[in-house]
Design brief:
CATH class: Alpha Beta
Strand order of the largest sheet: 3-2-1-4-5
Order of helices and strands: EHHEHHEHHHEHEHH
Strand content: 5-15%
Radius of gyration: 17 Å
Distance between the termini: 42 Å
CATH architecture: 3-Layer(aba) Sandwich
Helix content: 40-55%
CATH superfamily: 5'-nuclease
CATH topology: Rossmann fold
Number of helices: 10
Largest sheet: 5 strands, parallel
Length: 186
């Protein structure tokens, strides 16, 4: 990613939006904005987040036979380049440094450390560090965290910027407005 500030999105940015305020039928403009800004080299995520989103479909209650719209979107609607690969040596090196740092922190439980080492979170921050991107997450800094390693805590330690979805949308100057056809119905 080049040019203006770029953003790499955490899984919770997609999941929270899909489940609440930017549901696909309620605000399709959100999902289109992500793809548009990806096309402008401003927004992406990583392969490991995609894997988390795709797995969601197999985790749903099969008896309900409801498709998981987010899983389908991640598989079928975004360009293949949206979910960037994390095999680059700079990303791997940054990830290893982050895992080493997390392991050295006595405040985190062993389970929290193991989860950080195995989940996409560390890879996302490492990708951001290696590519000078801003992490987008709904997680918040928590100096006293023990049972989970908050992404912002690692971002602060490794000098990686982070914001929430709304700050990213504001920075990208995204606006959701009624279409002219809907405005005429007033």
């Amino acid at each position: 990613m080049s040019g203006s500030k770029g953003y790499v999105l955490d899984a919770n940015v997609f999941i929270e939006a899909k489940n609440r305020y930017y549901r696909f039928k309620l605000c399709p403009g959100y999902w289109k904005a992500l793809i548009t800004h990806h096309g402008n080299n401003r927004v992406c995520s990583i392969d490991r987040v995609r894997d988390e989103l795709i797995v969601r479909k197999s985790d749903r209650d099969e008896s309900k036979k409801e498709p998981d719209a987010l899983s389908d979107w991640a598989k079928d609607s975004v360009p293949e380049t949206f979910f960037m690969q994390t095999q680059d040596q700079a990303v791997i090196d940054a990830f290893q440094q982050m895992v080493t740092w997390v392991d050295s922190q006595t405040q985190f439980t062993a389970d929290a450390k193991a989860e950080f080492a195995s989940a996409a979170d560390g890879w996302l921050i490492a990708f951001a560090k290696a590519n000078n991107l801003t992490v987008v997450t709904h997680e918040v800094y928590n100096r006293d965290a023990r049972r989970r390693v908050p992404m912002p805590n690692v971002c602060v330690e490794f000098d990686v910027d982070y914001v929430d979805t709304f700050k990213m949308l504001e920075d990208l100057k995204v606006k959701f407005i009624l279409s002219p056809k809907q405005q005429r119905r007033k």
